[in-house]
Each structure stands twice: as C-alpha cells, then as structure tokens.
C-alpha cells in the first residue's frame, strides 16, 4: 500500500515537471540537461506548455484569443490535473474509493494525451518510420511511464 | 484537512501575488522571466528563467491589464492604492484575508474551520462581484474610459476564469468541510 502511494506521488511529480519545465540541468559545465520535450519536428521541439523553434524562440497557443487557445489549454490543463489528481489520490489520508476514482480519471486523461500525440507523430512518421527514435523525446516516454505507474497503482488498490 | 479549502487558498495566493505563471522553466539568462526581472527590478536573473507566460490578469483593455494586486499600464506597474483606494480594499486586502481564512479554515476540522471557509467563500463571491460591477463603475478612473455595465465581459482574461473556479472550489470546501468528533 505504501509503495503504491509513493509511486502515485512520483507519477504526480513527473506530471508537474512535464507541465511546467522545459529542462532540468544535471551538470551545467558539460551542458547536460534532462529535456522534457515530447517530440521534435524539423527544428521545432514540442512540450506540454508550448513549443521551441531552434532552441531560442518560444510560442504557446495558450496565449491566443478564445477559442483558438482551447486546444492548447486542454492539453496543459490535462497534464496539470493529472499531477494534481495523482498527488491528491496518493496522500496518506486519502479515502480508498476516492483514490480509485481519481486514478481512473487520471488514466483516461493520460490515454487521451498519448493518443493525441501518437496520432500527430504517426502522421509525421508515415514516410520514414525509422526516424521514431530521433523524433520522440523524453517527455513522451515519461507520459507512458505515468500511464504504467497509474495502471499499476490502480491494480494494487483493487487487489487490496 | 479540507483539501478543497487548501487548494482554494493556493489559487488565491497565485492570483493575488503573481503577474503570470511561468511555463517552460529553463536555467539560463534568456527567457521571459529574465526579461520580467530586468524590466521591473533592473537586474539580471542568472539562474531561473522561463519561456512562456500564462497570464493571470482578470481583464485586459488595450495596454492595460487588471490584476487583484493592481494594474499594468503599458510597461508601468501600479498597485491599487496608487490608483483606486476602494479597489485596494475590495480586491487586494480582502484577497489577503481570503488566503488566511481559507488556509487556517482548511486546517481546522471543527465548526470554527467551517465558519472560516464560509467567510472565505463569501469574500471570494464579493471580490468576483466587485470585479464585474465595481470596475465598470470606476472604469473612468482605472481604465480611462467609462464602461457600460456589461462592457467588461468583452475584456475577460484567464484570471477571471480562475477566480470563478476558485469560488466553485470554495463552495465545495464549505459543503465537504470535515468535522472530527
């Protein structure tokens, strides 16, 4: 039970990192960073909060006028909510039934995000599928990781 | 602990103390956070910067942005007590009171805690009502143009919607407040 809750908490923190961060430095003199990009398409790096062009210009559809911003807003709010939900469901005093419901909602939200990004990536890679490892970023793998953590925690909760 | 009340308090803190939520954090001198620090404080931010700003203003009218703490006209930042004392009391001071009430109320699992959460809910509704009724009344002084009663709805921004969300959270906090026996 404790490991399950801790895993949920870690998943929530990763979701928050994906929602707010572009990179975390590991060793600055050598320029080693953990980059949270979801995928790269011709010099444009896509993140949950927006995108970077050539590593120096940034944009976010969040800042457009209503209703053009709704799509970007949905993506950003989804990942932020996932973080919030996972942390709230993993606290020591969280009720069992509430946690189960929250984990289910979170799984639905992550699956929505992964499906969305997978479709975009597949459309781009339809010509040359071998580029998949060049295009996909750590953010995508971490999102998959959150989904696995979520399914694992929900299963453990159900067993208990 | 009342989680909804605590979240409502955090949302109010964000609205009352921040100009924007920085997104895309990176570690370097480039980025909007660095530019913001350089513009308002005149120093470089060598450590933490960000790429994108998620705006928190209640209303945007031309080059004027209205926040709970004050107003930005062009590149100039003014607090409410410099512009309009009534807005300073109703938007800023009551917001600070709401933060204290909701956080203290969410920790206390007794009838007093519920009463505090109730006060914070009423205060938030009051702030919301003042922002859609009071701001148009004093729009000549604040925005330089006299607004009609419903004109303000044409200039809503993210902060206003977060305020509505905050009111809903405070309502849930009041309904679901745990009272331990």
Counting copies of identical and different chains, the oligomeric state is heterodimer
Question: How many strand segments of chain A?
Answer: 6
Biggest interface, chains and residue tallies: A-B, 22 and 16 residues
Q: Beta-strand level of the residues of chain B, as a percent range?
A: 5-15%
Structural class of chain B: alpha+beta
Numbering strands along the chain, what is their spatial order in the largest sheet of chain B?
3-4-5-6
Q: What's the helix count of chain A?
A: 5
Low-confidence stretches of chain B: none
Q: What is the succession of H and E elements of chain A?
A: HEEEEEEHHHH
Form type of chain A: globular
Helix/strand-derived category of chain A reads alpha+beta
What is the makeup of the main sheet of chain A?
Answer: 4 strands, antiparallel
Word description of this protein:
The complex is a heterodimer of chains A (160) and B (181). By secondary structure, chain A is of the alpha+beta class. Chain A contains five helices and six strands. Chain A has helices spanning 2-20, 70-89, 96-125, 132-135, 138-159, and strands at 23-27, 32-35, 39-41, 44-46, 51-53, 57-59. In chain A, the strands form two sheets. Chain A has a four-stranded antiparallel sheet with strand order 3-4-5-6. In chain A, strand 4 (44-46) and strand 5 (51-53) form a beta hairpin. The longest helix of chain A is centred in the last third of the chain and has 30 residues, at 96-125. The N and C termini of chain A lie close together (8 Å). With 181 residues, chain B is α+β, with helices and mostly antiparallel strands. Chain B is 56% helix and 12% strand. Chain B is built from seven helices and six strands, in the order H-E-H-E-E-E-E-E-H-H-H-H-H. Chain B has helices at residues 3-17, 32-41, 80-83, 85-107, 111-137, 139-143, 158-175, and strands spanning 20-23, 52-55, 59-61, 64-66, 70-73, 76-79. In chain B, strands 3-4-5-6 form a four-stranded antiparallel sheet. In chain B, strands 1-2 form a two-stranded antiparallel sheet. In chain B, helix 5 (111-137) runs antiparallel to helix 7 (158-175). The longest helix of chain B has 27 residues, at 111-137. Chain A binds chain B through residues 19-25, 28, 33, 47, 49-50, 52, 56, 58-60, 62-63, 76, 88, 93, and chain B through 1, 3, 22-27, 30-31, 50-55.
